[in-house]
Amino acid sequence: MSDSISDLLDNNARWAGKIQQEDSKFFERLAAQQRPKYLWIGCSDSRVPANVITGLAPGEVFVHRNVSNRVENTDRNILAVVQFAVLSLKVKHIIVCGHHDCGGVGAALTRSTDGPLRDWVSPIRALALDKKCLQSDFDNQKDWVNRVCEMNVEDQVTTLLQNQYLKEAADSGQQISVHGWVYSLQNGLIKDLNVSASNLD
Ligand SMILES: [Zn+2]
After folding, report:
1. Are 77 and 5 part of one and the same domain?
2. Cβ–Cβ under 8 Å, residues 185 and 102
3. Containing domain of residue 78, as a range?
4. Taking the CA atoms of the chain, what radius of gyration do you get in angstroms?
């Protein structure tokens, strides 16, 4: 646990030194080029760090994170990320990874937030209502939130498959698979929601 901001810089210096010792060309290679096969779209939640939970090193995954791992067609940030990852980096897989107990999903369902955060997560509540996924169908609120966390991932996968850059890639024969996963904060395991599809399907 790091308590002070200077700890972060000390940690960094130790980490860089250790890598350099193990592989003297590591930074030289990465500085020359990044060639990740994966684009990760995950939640900003501090407990779900993409590289750490998938065992990937720097250079192996291009990462975009926002509250509740949303893919919004009006969000230039995510559109730019997808454009770059697909057309320039030519990633082979896009992973949307949500997580159970997501605070953003909970806030959307209980309408317990306001301001930009409320605007950002409100489509999740609309999605749940649209799919008739109601709290009354569940024994408790936690199960309801967790089901909607999964539904939210499935919805982002669907949105991505219609993305213009994935279509452009398909037109040039570049295959990209899109996957929907959900991570458990309880045991650290990722569950595949089995909604994978390719832009060539
Ligand atoms: Zn979250």
Report:
1. no
2. no
3. 34-198
4. 19
Residue 91's closest CA among 171, 166, 27, 182?
Answer: 166
Q: Tens of pLDDT along 21-51?
A: 999 999 999 999 999 999 999 999 999 999 9
**pTM score, whole prediction:** 0.96
Asked whether residue 56 falls in the same domain as residue 1, the answer is no
Distance 65 CA to ligand 1 centre (A): 10
How buried is 4 (Cβ within 10 angstroms: 0-12 exposed, 13-18 middle, 19+ buried)?
A: exposed
* AA letter at 36: P
Q: Which amino acid is at 123?
A: P
| Residue positions annotated with a catalytic role | 43, 45, 47, 99, 102
Shared-domain flag, residues 94 and 28? no
CATH code at position 111: 3.40.1050.10
